[in-house]
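Prompt: For my understanding, could you write out one protein's sequence and backbone structure tokens?
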Amino acid sequence: MKNQINIADIPGINPLIKDYINKKESTTPFYGRNLSPESLLSQAKEKTSSYIHKEKLVKELQKQLEKLKLSDKQKTNLNNLSLANSVTITTGHQLNLMTGPVYFIYKILHAIKLCDEMNKYQSKFNFIPIFWMATEDHDFEEINHFYFNKNIIHWNEKHRDFVGEISTKGLKEILSDFYEQLKYYPFGKEVRKIIEKSYFSAANLSDATRILVHELFKEYGLLFIDGNSKSLKKLFIPFVKDDITEKRSFQIISSTIKKLKSNHYNIQVNPRKINFFYHKNWERNRIDETNGTYYILGSCKNFSEREILKEIDEHPENFSPNALMRPVYQEVLLPNVAYIGGNAEIAYWLELKDYFITQNIPFPILVPRNSFLLINEVQESKMKRLSWKINDLFLQKEKIINTIVEKKSSYMFDFSKYQSRLESIFDDLLIESANTNPSWKNMILAQKKKQFNGLEKINQRFYKANRLKHKEIVCNFENLHEELFPMGTWQERIFNFSSYYAIIGSDFLARIYKEINEFQSIVSVFNLEKGK
């Protein structure tokens, strides 16, 4: 079984993302170019004509990667990055324990494949995949766990620091049960080796994640960057000053948000007047300003405007961008032409175009990542027996049950004809009352509502009775639905990559890579065991 569904056709997807994918006119003010090979070439031409940080970027990357044994493809990409005609395609994520949900892997593979396809398509530019490590996030609760199948492995610690700087001390004990479970899987030994090389040897979460991602993707040529670097943040000083003292990003993004709201789109992230945190002494605190004094919230520290500008010049590493300024930081540092992200990420990137224009930064092409629903032989067989069609996979659970029960029933009671009859009766009564006593209208409408409520109760009785007749089918469906949509959500948002890697090894990455449709926003449903 192998099928692809357009993400825009799936119920419940953010309307802004649906309209963006469908190129609806109401979204065009919020982005630059659509995704296509030709657009990527145009974007590359624009970016290379204005990008000025190649030498410093490559020097910092060499420093960050010096302890890793790079593959030939990584070495080539790192060398090529210094060339004037090299550009990047980037994705990024938090430093989730063991990479967290498996979509972490999907994002990276999408970026890699898009680069590979562009390098096959043309030779004018070198396209290089980059993983942006979100080491400066501080929400530890979001990254401190992962699911191996349905078993949660949880890191119970309390931290307020950048997650990248958290010590890995104690992780050996946390991962010990998981480590033991892996013994019983064909490729469990490979996963254990990756854990040993990363979490059991690195000093902090940033280093551990870098090693882990390297072990998984080195043969694909992926490079990775940590923006928490003084030398890199020096390049961002003018933008930090502009945001903190001029509040320009707040003004412009707020104006964009008004436009989005006027088109009835929900807002993913609202800007603050100051969109940077102050990071010092193991804490990351918001900055607020009142009457020219800049306060570090949650501390006793404050600055005058002159003092905070001096602090930015001397210690740019103490200033950390929030979710809205991180894309700006990324695009200043990298010769980037496209960003691969999930729907929520793309939604907040769409708030930023006007700000990019004012700062003379090319706005990258936004690419909603591919999603996957992976099934096995048994699940595929169950789906066929239940007549559960691929196009119905993402409907509400009760709607799917209704469809399945209806298909399996030799007799289905059609209640709509009784609703039509009742509607007709009350339409006639309203006409008669208008000719007899118009004041009866509200009484008749109230009675109509009462009768329809009663009819619906009878309908529900028929429905429950019919469902009870097919109790076994409903039970089988609910069990299968829980397997495919654990905890009521998408599989890729729960299970860790190790759930699959432990079974088929690195072929897991190869099969996902093969299935990615790099120029389309789709969900692929396929049997991972067959590789098709």
